[in-house]
Design brief:
Blueprint: H1 8-15, H2 22-33, H3 38-47, H4 50-59, H5 62-72
Length: about 70
């Protein structure tokens, strides 16, 4: 996974995650973490607190883990 951290769109997305419904943010975080390479995972770990990643990715990302992830496996 390549993160374009300097891209204006990426920076803008980081500034407004609170504007998304929790389920949308959860789906996004579950997708980002699913199969992320070590570099991308390290970046997520450094930028986003573990509790936030857990709640968004596991709790609000349940739909992703039930419906999408099995298809990609």
């Amino acid at each position: 996974m390549v993160l374009h951290q300097e891209a204006p769109e990426f920076k803008a997305a980081l500034r407004r995650p609170h504007r998304q419904p929790p389920v949308t943010a959860g789906w996004l975080f579950a997708w980002l973490q699913d199969g992320a390479d070590p570099e991308a995972q390290a970046w997520l770990d450094a930028e986003i607190p573990a509790l936030v990643r857990f709640i968004l990715g596991k709790v609000f990302g349940r739909w992703y883990h039930r419906s999408v992830a099995p298809v990609w496996s």
